[in-house]
Amino acid sequence: MLLSAEHIYLTTSSYVSFGRMALIGLLFAVLLLRSCETQGSSDVTSLFVQRGEDVHLEVTEPVQLNIKMDLFWKFNTTNTIGKLSYNNQPVLFDRYEERAEIFVQNQSLLLKNLQQNDTGNYVALVTGAKDRKVAEYNVIVQEPVSPVDLTVNSSSSDNCNFTVTCRTRGSHSSKTFRCDNRSCSEERGEETTTSINVYVDEGFIICNHSNKVSWKQDRKKVDFVCGAAPVTNEAVIVSGIIGALFAGLLVAFSICRFIRCRRKNCENTIYEVPQNTGPGQPLNRSPTEDASTSSPTSTYALVTFHTGPDQSTKTKNTTMPETVYAQVNRTSKPKSPQQPTQS
User: Fold this and answer.
1) In this predicted structure, what is the pLDDT of residue 315?
2) Where in the chain is the domain with CATH 2.60.40.10?
3) Alpha-carbon distance 291 to 307, whole Å?
4) Given this model, what pLDDT does residue 107 score?
5) Residue range 159-188: average pLDDT?
6) Paired strand residues for 188
7) Between β-strands 45-50 and 132-142, what pairing exists: parallel, antiparallel or unpaired?
8) What pLDDT shows up at residue 108?
9) Phi, psi at 234, each rounded to 5°
10) Phi and psi dihedrals of 299, rounded to 5?
11) Side by side, which strands form the sheet with 195-201?
12) Which of 206, 203, 209 shows the shortest CA–CA distance to 189?
């Protein structure tokens, strides 16, 4: 069976593509394996030390030396500081004899009186059939920062905004900030290897000059005279609106209730001044005599005490009327008496 040229070309292209993919996968696996092998020794600890101070470097994993193994402390790979052998005293080399110390108990290294040229990489290496890195440090030696001088100038008539300048002594570098009663923002300044920061704290404007190992400050007392800032908090505004609406509804409800109660009291109360009754007319009548007297009503009236006919012959004393609040029953009109029939 003969294959066409096109079929042979497609088959060859497929094999080539498969081979490329396999090669890429193999390279990726090799790189992953190498990264896993070196992961344990790739951790580097950075240490900042002020010039003239000491630093103590320790191994990061336990070390058990034997007759075939030695431990070396090295600086920048090529310079050997010293070594520690099995059952032997530590040995220090050249320039480190008076400036370094290796401890047998934990294989740590002490470096004394560090200077700028001591900045670099320090490694603890166990040598034998296979070398093993048991510690690595990046030591950075820094000078202490210089003192600073802070100058404060008012930039407004209300003593609320200030322009301040923080200048370092010796290096002649400076930065300018604008400050209010809450914070400061940088306006201009020079690039420096140290940090110059200005901030406000409890009525003081403070200039802080620092690096990783030291800091210096200068502060000035300032009397801020600022108007009250407008409230822009949306939550406060919404709460005020809701409170006002609630208060309005409460007032409207109270007014409506008062009007309803007043109308109800007016319907159930009759204000009447009773007339003087005759001597023979009873004040109280039975509820069955008249439907209009079925329910008592409240009456506020000015009344006088009734005097009977038997007092006509007696000496009458003039009495002043008294104000009496009483509950009286409404009486029905008396029926006219029948005329006697004459015989």
Assistant:
1) 44
2) 41-142
3) 29
4) 93
5) 86
6) 176
7) parallel
8) 95
9) -65, -35
10) -130, 130
11) 195-201, 204-210, 215-221
12) 209
Kindly report the three-state secondary structure assignment for every residue of the chain: CCCCHHHHHHHHHHHHHHHHHHHHHHHHHHHHHHHHHHHHHCCCEEEEEECCCCEEECCCCCCCCCCCCEEEEEECCCEEEEEEECCCCCEECHHHCCCEEECCCCCCEEECCCCHHHCEEEEEEEECCCCEEEEEEEEEEECCCCCEEEEEEECCCCCCCEEEEEEECCCCCEEEEEECCCCEEEEEECCCCCEEEEEEECCEEEEEEECCCCEEEEEEECCCCCCCCCCCCHHHHHHHHHHHHHHHHHHHHHHHHHHHHHHHHHHHCCCCCCCCCCCCCCCCCCCCCCHHHCCCEEEEEEECCCCCHHHCCCCCCCCCCEEEEEEECCCCCCCCCCCCCCC
User: How is residue 9 written in tokens?
Assistant: 């070309």
Quote the pTM value.
0.51
Can you read off the two tokens belonging to residue 54?
């000491």
Angle CA 47–50–52, to nearest 5: 125
pLDDT band at 38 (very low <50, low <70, confident <90, very high): very low
**What tokens does 99 get?**
């400036």
Locate tokens 């329910």: which residue?
Answer: 295
Domain made up of 41-142: CATH architecture: Sandwich (2.60)
Other C-beta atoms closer than 10 Å to the C-beta of 337 total 7
Q: Do 293 and 329 meet the contact criterion of CB atoms below 8 Å apart? A: yes
CA distance 200 to 150: 13
Assigned token pair, 38: 């070196």
In the chain, the amino acid numbered 331 is T
Give the whole-angstrom CA distance, residue 48 versus residue 139: 6
Q: Which amino acid is at 301?
A: A
Q: Residue 261 — pLDDT band, cuts 50, 70, 90?
A: confident
Strand partners, 120: 139
| CA dist., res. 92 & res. 269, Å (int) | 117
**CA dist 53 to 140, 141, 147, 227, 229, Å?**
12, 9, 20, 50, 50
Task: Supply the pLDDT for residue 36.
Answer: 43
